[in-house]
Amino acid sequence: MNYFSISRIISQIIFLSTHLMKAFFAHHKVDNPVNKRKKIKHRRDCAIIITHFRRLSMKKILILNGSFRKGNTDKTLVPVREALSEKETEIREFMIRDLIDTRCYGCALAITKGKEFCPTYETEKELLRQLEWCDALIIASPVYNGRETFIIKAMFDKFAFLVHRPRFFNKKAMVIVTRGNMFSAAIKYISKTLSQWGFHVTVKCGEPELPVLKNHLVPKTVQKIRNKTNRFYHSLDSAGKTPGIGDKLWFEVWKLNAEMGEKGNKTDFNYWKENGWFESDYYYDTRINPVSRLISSILRPVIKGQMKKTFKGY
Predict the structure, then answer these.
(1) What pLDDT is recorded for position 3?
(2) 157 CB neighbour count, 10 Å cutoff
């Protein structure tokens, strides 16, 4: 939990406590003729408390559409919006095309110094702010020639620093891919990248139907998407992902990368040091399977040796 999350919780507790005390004292002075007007204020304070408790319990959902136009993918998201609107949620939705500059200059400044040094940071800082804001992410993309759109790929390229310095471990994600029947490659790539950022991808959905050709989705498809959306919503309160052997090895690779960064990429090194990951078995407190722990400890020197051969400076 970062500083901003803690400060938000503290401020909300202070705010609610203040109104709760006001409502309590006003309630006990209602019978006094001098304080009749406080009866109205008492009700208002109670309403404020109820409203804020509802807001605190609401899940903040970010929907990102990776299409260049509002066509099949947008229509496929209609049942998603409908299902979420029936829950205690606050929804923000964006076309990714409006939040990024698809040009990448290959300068690697976002990785070596920080995203704020990227030449296109001013265009993309709002996307980063929305990712920080949300409790959960729903990302949707059509399939073009068997893969995700260039807009999705550009976003992942521009935010590659999040693979080096992941941060979204307390957030869930849902991946939706539309059009055609070649879903697996696109779903796998999007899910893998979001996992590398720290997201726990709990639901994946491939939808071959083309609603633009019919101007609507058939009821069976609508129900399928609504069911998956409901399953995703209910997963938001579930425990975080238990890492497998692949996750543990991935952690060790990037730990080695950050350790080597003491003489190179100081940004990675400092970030990992601040989070205490050099002394940790994983990014967050969780149970590591003994077999995974053993295999990763055996392979760690092998990985380190390979990295020294492959990358100059290691």
Answers:
(1) 43
(2) 15
